[in-house]
Amino acid sequence: MKIARSRQWLSLFAALWLFIAVPARANAQWEGPPTDLAELLWRQGYALHMFGAYEQAIVLFKRSIEARPTAEGYTFLGWSLSYIGQLQEAVAACKKAIEIDPDFGNPYNDIGVYLMELDRPDEAIRWLEQAIQAKRYCCYQFPHFNLGRIQLKRGEFAAAKRSFERALKFDPDYTPAKKALEEIEKNWL
């Protein structure tokens, strides 16, 4: 009973947040009010993911994809899957996103991150470089930063420094890149 009640509150709070905050988020993949059921379900899934309700978000992302397969639906399904440790499934979802929209940068970066988490950095590099080249992407700082993480781990300090600097060109306030750059300058260069 207590779990059901807390889920009801979570759903209510997520729905409220959905209609207040999601349409105004800075990196919106869709702008304005939802245009169809797929987008509405995607936005609800996004809100639940942001509240840490990953399994419920997965259900909504899958329902969104059933209503209309989109690159966003598959990418964010992968994101939630990654949060519950299903990295191979997350990679597969992102590959489906790329099939739908090869210009969408998010799934390339996400695959790179999942491969890094699977300790496969050599494979990750190719995906991060594709994210950097993507035509439609809100957050180019992420693949630059993630590439820098691989370079730093390999001891390629000058290359890592360049990658972190590139990340900061896209987002001068991106704290992880600032901290990584400070670490490199303090300890290695």
Task: Describe the structure in your own words.
The protein is mainly alpha-helical and 189 residues long. It folds into two domains: 36-138, Serine Threonine Protein Phosphatase 5, Tetratricopeptide repeat (Alpha Horseshoe); 139-189, no CATH class. Helices cover 74% and strands 0% of the residues. The protein is built from ten helices and no strands. The protein has helices at residues 2-20, 37-50, 54-67, 71-83, 87-100, 106-117, 121-133, 141-153, 157-170, 175-187. The protein starts with a helix and ends with a helix.
Could you give the topology of this structure?
Elements: H1 2-20, H2 37-50, H3 54-67, H4 71-83, H5 87-100, H6 106-117, H7 121-133, H8 141-153, H9 157-170, H10 175-187
Helix pairs in contact: 1-2, 2-3, 2-4, 3-4, 4-5, 4-6, 5-6, 6-7, 6-8, 7-8, 8-9, 8-10, 9-10
Low-confidence stretches at least 5 residues in length (pLDDT < 50)? 9-28
CATH superfamily of the largest domain: Tetratricopeptide repeat domain
| Number of strand elements | 0
Portion of residues within helices: over 70%
Proportion of strand residues: under 5%
Structural class: mainly alpha
- Second-tier CATH architecture of the largest domain: Alpha Horseshoe
Shape: elongated
Series of H and E elements: HHHHHHHHHH
Mean pLDDT: 87
Q: How is the CATH topology of the largest domain named?
A: Serine Threonine Protein Phosphatase 5, Tetratricopeptide repeat
Q: What is the count of DSSP helices, taking H or I runs of 4+ residues?
A: 10
Q: Span between N and C termini?
A: 58 Å
Instruction: Report the top-level CATH class of the largest domain.
Output: Mainly Alpha
